[in-house]
């Protein structure tokens, strides 16, 4: 299970704009750094991050090697209905991580 | 918008100077030398990369390990209670071996003695995670090195190392961190070198690391020969630095540049 | 090593001569202003970049280029008729010009994205917002990178 920290409100009023912050542990190796043997350490990054609200895509981001290690993202979304916000990261070396948070909208 | 920003800035400046003015302590932690963006990164527990390690540590705390099949929680219960203030008083003398240990050393002592598990490798994610989790329980508490006569000799050795010149540049720690703290070196502010935030997420490492790792960096950076891993010099310096920072509030696990 | 005074063919020869040396340097290649312009053109298709609406919040001086916190926010009603479709961020001197791309919809409510980026050197960052009306608004910032005085070697 990937090491993830997500900050999303547990409750919101319908129509409120809420902020979602997500942090995941990942080396984000750029593919430009030489290792101690002088050879370039191969690229290993998270490339795609997406968020859905009850299955509906609310945000998508494509990261490059310029995004810092242990990538952090914050974005906003309008609270629509109660349900699940699902976050998904994927990248090099078949990396996939998912995290779900429940939200109650009144 | 501008007035609000001004108001917030004044509040932030007031809070900062209030914190410094309290007790008139001239000592400043590395946190205070960082810009607002990095301070904000440290302050938000869901955005502080060090907290990823603390989160791992919280899980490891409850996992059974070793031949004894025990978890930390089996002896120590809720870390928020049992570990409160612990990181603030290390290095300390471990009674079972009658030798000084730092926090990582103490964790490994528990591993080998009580869990009958092998030691966790120095700077390994597993050891750092537990260290971050334990240190988190001392956040906000003053550094309180124990008044243990046996530690006096260790601290004194550390003081000598701190003040002694070494390496190709013939510099001592004191030359920068005592005599020139607050000034710039290569564009960066020289901190006073109080270990209030360890283990830290150092941007330079893009990972969490211990005080010992940071000290090794310093020695290499000064163009001096680093001591071998596990050398008593590291512990002596750690003990001295924590004593020098006595009373300062801990802000572990911190973020540092 | 790069000099704008040299004509193109001399620069090319210098580049080829230095190519072997370049692979031993910490970065295998270095982005150029041309690469940045090309990357921007890929996104805009040559449409003009308008100044305004975009705020790029990034510290002007940074303690360590490994992790630079930044936010891009765009003034927009974020309604079905007028919203920010995408935000693209580029850099000038990293080995490659992209930083990130993000896609939005009216459902975001606010077009503001925060993240942390790596900057290899003091350089310009450009943030471009693409609106549903097909307009491209942009903002840029110069970031000065300093690093800690005593660096651990890669060990």
Could you give a short description of this structure?
The complex is a heterotrimer of chains A (106), B (257) and C (155). Chain B is mainly alpha-helical.
Explain this structure.
The complex is a heterotrimer of chains A (106), B (257) and C (155). By secondary structure, chain A is an all-beta fold. Chain A has no helices and 8 strands. Chain A has a single domain, classed as Immunoglobulins (Immunoglobulin-like). Chain B has 257 residues and is mostly helical. Chain B has 2 domains: 121 residues, Cytochrome Bc1 Complex, Chain D, domain 2; 87 residues, Cytochrome c-like domain (Cytochrome Bc1 Complex, Chain D, domain 2). Chain B has 12 helices and 7 strands. In chain B, strands 6-5-7 form a 3-stranded mixed β-sheet. By secondary structure, chain C is an alpha+beta fold. In chain C, strands 1, 3, 5, 6, 8 and 9 form a 6-stranded mixed β-sheet that branches. Chain C has a 3-stranded antiparallel β-sheet with strand order 2-4-7, with no helix packed on it. About 10% of the residues of chain C have low confidence. At the A-C interface, β5 and β6 of A face β4, β6 and β7 of C.
């Amino acid at each position: 299970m990937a090491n993830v920290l997500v900050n999303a409100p547990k409750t919101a009023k319908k129509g409120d704009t809420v902020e979602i912050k997500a942090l995941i542990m990942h080396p984000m190796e750029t593919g430009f750094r030489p290792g101690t043997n002088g050879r370039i350490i191969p690229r290993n990054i998270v490339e795609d991050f997406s968020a859905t609200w009850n299955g509906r895509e609310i945000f998508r981001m494509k990261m490059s090697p310029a995004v810092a290690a242990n990538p952090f993202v914050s974005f906003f979304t309008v609270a629509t209905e109660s349900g699940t916000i699902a976050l998904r990261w994927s990248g090099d070396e078949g990396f996939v991580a998912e995290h779900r948070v429940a939200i109650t909208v009144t | 918008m501008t007035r609000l920003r001004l108001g917030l800035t004044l509040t932030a400046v007031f809070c900062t100077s209030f914190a410094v003015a309290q007790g008139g302590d001239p000592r400043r932690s590395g946190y205070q030398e960082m810009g607002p963006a990095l301070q904000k990164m440290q302050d938000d527990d869901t955005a502080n990369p060090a907290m990823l390690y603390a989160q791992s540590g919280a899980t490891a705390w409850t996992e059974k390990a070793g031949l004894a099949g025990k978890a930390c929680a089996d002896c120590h219960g809720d870390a928020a209670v049992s570990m409160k203030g612990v990181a603030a008083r290390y290095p300390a003398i471990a009674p079972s071996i009658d030798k000084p240990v730092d926090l990582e050393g103490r964790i490994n002592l528990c591993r080998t003695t009580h869990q009958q598990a092998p030691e966790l490798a120095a700077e390994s994610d597993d050891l750092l995670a537990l260290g971050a989790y334990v240190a988190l329980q001392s956040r906000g508490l003053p550094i309180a090195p124990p008044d243990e006569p046996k530690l006096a000799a260790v601290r004194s050795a550390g003081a000598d190392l701190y003040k002694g010149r070494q390496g190709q540049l013939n510099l001592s720690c004191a030359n920068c961190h005592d005599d020139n703290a607050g000034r710039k070196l290569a564009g960066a502010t020289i901190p006073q070198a109080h270990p209030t935030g360890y283990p830290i997420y150092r941007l330079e490492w893009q990972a969490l690391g211990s005080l010992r790792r940071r000290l090794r960096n310093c020695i290499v950076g000064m163009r001096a020969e680093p001591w071998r891993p596990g050398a008593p010099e590291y512990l002596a310096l750690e003990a001295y630095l924590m004593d020098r920072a006595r009373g300062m509030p801990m802000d572990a696990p911190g973020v540092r540049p | 090593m790069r000099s704008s005074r040299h004509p193109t063919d001399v620069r090319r020869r210098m580049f080829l001569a230095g190519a072997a040396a370049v692979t031993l340097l910490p970065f295998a290649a270095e982005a150029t202003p041309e690469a940045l312009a090309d990357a921007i053109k890929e996104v805009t298709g040559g449409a003009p970049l308008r100044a305004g609406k975009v705020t790029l919040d990034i510290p002007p001086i940074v303690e360590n280029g490994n992790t630079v916190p930044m936010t891009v926010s765009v003034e927009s009603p974020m309604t079905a008729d007028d919203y920010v479709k995408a935000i693209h961020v580029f850099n000038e001197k990293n080995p490659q010009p992209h930083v990130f791309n993000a896609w939005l919809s009216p459902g975001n409510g606010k077009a503001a994205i925060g993240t942390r980026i790596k900057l290899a050197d003091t350089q310009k960052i450009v943030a471009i917002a693409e609106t549903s009306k097909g307009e491209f608004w942009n903002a840029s910032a110069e970031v000065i990178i300093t690093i800690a005085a005593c660096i651990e070697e890669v060990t």
